[in-house]
Amino acid sequence: GPQHKVVGNVQGISATALVNSRGLRVSVASAAVYQVDGQVIYKMSVADTVGFGLTFPVGVVASGRLEGNVSVGQGLVTSVETVGYFDENSGGSVVLSALPQGLATLVVRLEGLFQISTTAGVIQVQARTSVTTSPINIQKGPYLRAFKIG
Question: What sign does the dihedral 99-18-84-105 (CA atoms) show?
């Protein structure tokens, strides 16, 4: 069956370089293809630029997208969506960068295909903020799923 990981506690990320988000990681075997999807729910203490990316084993061929809302939440009637596409063979770079407006609850969605070569390992969601004094607070409930399809 699929792997399914869910974040159980609020996690604050105040680093200005991408760091791994606890709990949002799935293991992958060598010589396999995975369909991966997930969702990150987060809040900001102040409006500040955030970035999201992925890390995965060396030599992986990965393509997909990260979609994020930058102004959504209770009482707000408008939202703006940003989309970052990736087509890479190495992770660790910002795929989606956004400037959330206000203190609303925000969402980033992930969809991708990962062709794993000879190196097994993990696919992991990463995040960063642009100022250490305004952390990203990843809420309870975000998930990451991986389906081995080949």
Answer: negative
Region of 20 (left: φ > 0; alpha: ψ -120 to 50; beta: rest) is: beta
Whether 56 contacts 121, CB under 8 Å? yes
pLDDT category at 85 given cuts 50, 70, 90 is confident
CA distances from 134 to 47, 64, 122, 150 (A): 8, 28, 28, 41
Cα–Cα distance, 111 to 2 (Å, whole number): 15
Average pLDDT over residues 65-86: 71
pLDDT at 77 (0 to 100): 47
pLDDT of residue 74: 54
Whether pTM exceeds 0.85 = yes
CB 116 within 8 A of CB 29: yes
If you search the block for the tokens 């396999």, which residue do you land on?
Answer: 32
Closest CA to 60 of 115, 97, 120: 115
Token couple for 18? 């991408």
